[in-house]
Amino acid sequence: MNVRRTTVAVTGATVSVLEWTPGRTGLGDGLDLGDGLGDGDGDGPTVLLLHGGGADSAELSWGEVGPALAKAGFRVLAPDHPGFGRSPRAEWPLTQEHLVRYVGELVDALDLDDYVVGGLSLGGGLTLGHLLDRPGRARGAMLMGCFGIMPRLADGPLGRLSHAATFLLLRSGLLAAMTRSYARDPAAMERGLRDIVRNPSARTPELVRAVIAEAAASDGLEVFGQWQREQVLWGRLRTDYTDRLHEIEAPTLLVHGDHDRGVPIARARSAARLLPRSELLEVPDAGHWVQRDRPDLVIPAMVGFLRRVG
Description:
It is built from 12 helices and 10 strands. Helix content is 41%, strand content 17%.
C-alpha cells in the first residue's frame, strides 16, 4: 500500500496527516470496488478528508476509504484534527471558527490548488465552513452525516427537550463522565456503535477495540467535549449553515444513512435542495458513520463523483 504519515504546522498546532497515493494498494481484502473503479491514472484532484468528533481519527474514519480512492487513481490526504489521533492538542480552544481556520491553513500548507474536500459529521461541518470561508477554492465537496445543517441537536416533538437535556449534561460535566465510562467498556461501546454502524458485519470486534484504543490514546474525547460546549447553546446550536447553503457553488455529494439518528435524513434532503449543485445518495439501513457502515455503496459513489468533477 502506498501510504505515509507526515506532520504539518499550522498556527498554534502541529497536525499529523495520512497520505495515500495512487497505484495498486493491496486492497484485495474483502472490498469489491466493482467494474471500472480500480487502478486509475492519478490525474484527478487531490482528496482532503476530514474525520468526525469523539473517539475518531483519520485512520478510523478513512482507513478503508483512503486506499480505495488511491486505487481508483486519487491522491488522498486525511489529517488528525488537533487533539485527535496522533495530533497533539492545539494552543487554541477547539471552536468551530478555529477549526475552519485550521482547515484553510492546512490547505495552504499542503499547497493544494486542485482538490475536493469531504468530511464526516464534524468534518462535514468543517467542509461547509471551508467552502463558505474560501469560495471558489475547492473543486467539489463530499458530505457524510454532515453537521451544520440543523438548528438543534434533535428534531421532532421532543427535540427541544432533548437539546436542553444535552446542554445541561454538558455544562454539569456529567456527559463527559458518562462518555469516559462508556469508552472503557467494550460491551457498552458495542451497544453504542449499533446506532451509528448498523451493519453487523461492519461492526466488528476489531472496530470496537480500535475505537476504545483511540479513546484511551488521544485527547479526542476531551477536546470534542470542548467543541460541544461551545456549540450547544440553550435552545439552539451555535453553527447552522442552512441559510448560507445557497452560496456554495462547488458541486457537492451528500451521502447519508437513512437511519442516521444524529442528523435525520430529512435534513440531508433539505440541504441537497438548497445547495445549487448537489446530489444525494441515501444509503439504505445505514447509520451516522455511513462510510464504515456501507463502504460497498459509499466508496463507489465517492469514486464516481470524483471522476465527474475531475
